[in-house]
Amino acid sequence: MYYTSSGAYRKSKMIIDYLNIGLTVVIGVMFLVILFLRSRSGILFPVIFTLGAVVNASNSVKKFMDRKKAPGFILAAVTVVLLLIAVFTWHAI
Questions:
Q1: Other Cβ atoms closer than 10 A to 47
Q2: Whose CA is closest to 18, among 65, 62, 72?
Q3: Which residues contact 44 (CB under 8 A, 6 or more apart)?
Q4: What is the value of pTM for the model shown?
Q5: Tens digit of pLDDT for each residue in 42-84?
Q6: Phi first, then psi: what are they for 28, rounded to 5°?
Q7: CA distance linking residue 31 with residue 13, whole number of Å
Q8: Distance (Å, rounded) from C-alpha 37 to C-alpha 49?
Q9: What is the dihedral of CA 70, 72, 77, 78, to 10 degrees?
Q10: Distance in angstroms (rounded) separating the CA atoms of residues 27 and 66
Q11: What backbone torsions phi and psi does residue 41 show, to the nearest 5 degrees?
Q12: How far is CA 46 from the centre of its chain?
């Protein structure tokens, strides 16, 4: 771990946490919209998968910051899979 006098390490991890909380709330709201507006919700599937990829990518960065390489690589692989699913669902619309 790297520490600076300004606390940049702690601040960057907090920013990642706040980003993940916000994106998770947005994903939850989009899921509810899909449940209630089924006829007009096709575009939301690729958006949800892309936001899920962003959440996993930020968690991967956080793991790499903590020098935990194996969980970081696993989360990076899940990110790639979610991006591929987003591309496939985008073409299916």
A1: 15
A2: 62
A3: 30, 33, 34
A4: 0.83
A5: 889 999 999 999 999 999 999 998 899 999 999 999 999 999 9
A6: -65, -40
A7: 27
A8: 18
A9: 120
A10: 26
A11: -110, 10
A12: 13
Task: Fill in the amino acid letter for 17.
Answer: D
The pair of three-digit structure tokens given for residue 89, joined into one six-digit string: 């669902």
Q: Which structure tokens are listed for 29?
A: 């709201």
d(CA 70, CA 53): 18
Contacts 24+ apart (CB under 8 A), 67-74: 67/1
| Tokens 């996993």, residue located | 56
Structure-block tokens of residue 15: 């920013």
pLDDT tens per residue, range 9-44: 788 889 999 999 999 999 999 999 888 887 777 889
For residue 74, what are its two tokens?
Answer: 């696993």
